[in-house]
Amino acid sequence: TPAQIGNRLIGRRTSALIALAVLLFLPLSLLLYLHSEVNVEPLPLGELIPSLQLSTLQRTPVLLKTYEGKKLVLLFFTAECLHCQRELSNLEYLYEKYKEKLQVLSISHSDGEVTRELISVRRLSFPVLVDEKKETKQSFKIAGVPALFLVDERQILRYRRFGERSLAVDELLLNDFVSGKFSAANDHGLPIEDSP
Questions:
Q1: 150, 136, 81, 132: which is closest to 89 by C-alpha?
Q2: pLDDT tens for each residue of 76-99
Q3: Distance separating alpha carbons of residues 1 and 52, to the nearest angstrom
């Protein structure tokens, strides 16, 4: 009957409109999500770092405040991230070279078991802390990993960067950091000779 045909056409049009609305909504919601993740304002240079309690792979609690009085290198990573794995290898090499002059800590945003496996495979000797709840991501305002932060003896953030760099770049950076080319007066986190 014509009424049934009309009802089917209305039903199909309604279904098509709902499908179209869903197809338009999904990319828009993804775009909004990515925009919110990318537009995280990082922790400002020259500010005190958050004093959080994290845990070792053996579940021993560790306060970041414990490291006050030492120059500190913080590397935030996930075990699944290939860029992070290469940055961890760079840091292992540099840790052996600079361990008398600064403290290296890596902070995993992956679960403890996956992190433990990565540490074993990569044969890392510096301390690795686990932040399964990703509290540091919010507190340090980390937009992506790997994220490298350099912190002075007073726990003031002097430098931060997101993404992988070469071993040579990392070595120059740590050399400048331990040799005092980062100073309390230099809140831009740049080597003194490069400061504006």
A1: 81
A2: 999 999 999 999 999 999 999 999
A3: 71
